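Repro:
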Amino acid sequence: MKPIKITYQKNNEFQTATVNPGTEVFNFMPEFNINGNQLVAAKVNNELASLDSSLEFDCTVEPVYNNTKEGMAVYRRSLCLLLAAAAYRINPETRLIVGNSICYGYYYTFDGEKIPASKLKQEMEKLISKDVRIKKNYISWEQAAALFEKLNLKETRKQLNHNCSSKILINSIDDFSDLYFGPLVLSTGALQFFDLVDYQNGLLLRFPKTKCPNQIPQFKDEPKLFNLYKQYKEWGKRVNVLSAASLNDMVANRQINDFIDIAETHQEKCISDIASQIINKKKVRVVLIAGPSSSGKTTSAKKLGLELQAMGYTPKVISLDCYYLGRDKTPVDENGEPDFECLEALNIDLLNQNLIDLFEGKTVTIPSYDFHTGTSYFDESNKMSLAENEILIMEGIHGLNPKLTPKVPEELKFKIYLSALTQLNLDDHNRISTSDNRLIRRIVRDNNFRGKAAAGTIAMWPSVQRGEELHIFPYHNNADAILNTALDYELSVLRVYAAPLLRQVTPLQKEYGEARRLLNFLENFATISPTAVPNRSIIREFIGGSAFRY
């Protein structure tokens, strides 16, 4: 058996080692548990791998710790398996169903008798103290179908009907097995830091922040987002679409066009309801719309404008981009680069004065910003006034920050937060991340309209998320209304565009692991032809062909 060469980085230097084929990653990397950070996985040729993966060919291996984005994802996924195993040990008859993300935690509900969080937590701690090895192995499709029926994993079993693989990879803790789409930690003893609390009608599995992997952050409730999710989940139950498996059944049975119409109509009704709230508030003169990247702000603003017009009001749009101070006056970030995402990059005083003047019936000159030269200037042709039945619409990342419009009375403002919060799960225990949904939207849009490769979008996504954590998410509870811009069928459409782009990311690129993860995720969805998407759908903002002009 010919030895293989492993390249790895240690002490900021690349080194090589020779090992026998079949050597497990962990046996090669035990010394990498350093600096108080826990080794939870590895990257093999830039692809995330579990520590018990076998090294079969010449490759580059990098350690992945729990204080990294990839490492914390491994940790969270493993905690989910631990919780599911504990629930099965206590009551095999009850179904545990994963839900949305809330303040560094996942919300779970029960189909059947609810198990108290304290009892579940105690069972999880028993498994942790025993340091049970988390095993992975392949079984046949037929064995997997029988296993998931026995374990009462209904949605997981249903999804097998859309997986033609002859072998299925399962993860096991003692006598409980499940599907998880990605590497897990080696054993339960690695899962020391978590909390489990009763919340609403279910429970909340809480986990550490990435930067502080050894402590659970203080809980901050998000009632508005949770209520939105709850309402949307109830809608999903009524239309009988709760998982990727349910959606795939509709595609297979040629019922998807009807569901697309239902989903689009439901979203338009939600926008219409928000328009009614704006009008019923009587004194509103400006609507402020904020949401994270690729949440569909532009299309949502246009659709809201149409609803307001149908009610006899004329919307006017002011872009916050117009109020950039200029590159020479923009604060710099920690890397010395202009920080265009911070609030201080905008001319707040001028914005507030313009708004007050408009509300007093005056005519103002709106500033302009040249992105090529990085300068602010005034064009006398860019004047604006506001009549009695006219309402301003402003969308931008700082829309919900009270420091954006401190001089404008609250009764004149209506604030809307957008979230692409899908109520779908992949199956019983695998959720669909809102962030993944938006990233896939962004990959498709960046390629369609900016000529950007998937690797480029993936590379800048962590920076985007940091900006969202600072400037958007802390203020969503300030919103007067929250609009869910997710459409439950959209990932089946986006797969048509995103999958070929993700396949172009090579193993030589740092973004390869994330590209493979997203590609594997999208394979859970049957494809839907883009021609089925209405021309006013939010999805058209990303795939093209919209009836709106952007």
